[in-house]
Write a structure and sequence with these properties.
single chain, 0% strand, transmembrane helix, MetI-like fold, cell membrane, transport, 2 domains
Amino acid sequence: MRNTASFLIVVGFLILWEISARIIDKAFILPSPLQIFIRLWELKEVLFLDHLPITLLSIVMGLTLSIILGTAIAVWMSLNSSVQRAIYPILIASQMVPVIALAPIFVLWFGYTIWSKVAVAVLITFFPITVNTFDGLSSGNKDNEELFLTMGATKKDIFFKYSIPMALPHFFSGLKVAVTLSVIGAAIGEWLGAQAGLGYFSRRMMTQFDGAAVFAPIIVLTFVGILLFICVTHLEKRMLNWRTKS
């Protein structure tokens, strides 16, 4: 029932968009969904063979580094309260600076290489992973931990057999947010400084006043984000199947 409602909302939105675009009749400003999908089909080889792999590489590299960096910082903060008090405010402050303002700086530092896009993706995605993982590691019951200690468990045992399983649902919650943000981060990085990629292609088409071609890469990026979210959700169900069995 919910899927049917979502489908009807999307269809209704597309119909309204199509009608509005035909009334305005300025495709370089507001192309219709039909025009966009026709242009997407015409540009499929350029988008999917030339630009999509570069954007996917930026997304995967950014997510990988964010997972490594975010979980490492979260574990460090959970094990040391002094580190938590020192680093947590810095994490918050890092999200106060607009990414759109830092992206040109990354281009200045790394040039028009993939690393400027990866840096933007990391900056945007590591925060939800770090915060959610830290919350998960800190969500354990102290009484349970003391019980484990009295039963002969070491702190290492408690961390790997109690804290980590408790943190995994929180980690996946952060990861589901991060995968969608990684697409945005890669696109922003390519939009502001790149020689290839879907974001770069969209910006290039804007200079040619090809409205449908500007939207076409955005449609591809949207489906990439949805697919990544579905993959993470599937992985979460596979790794956390013990929650449904208990």
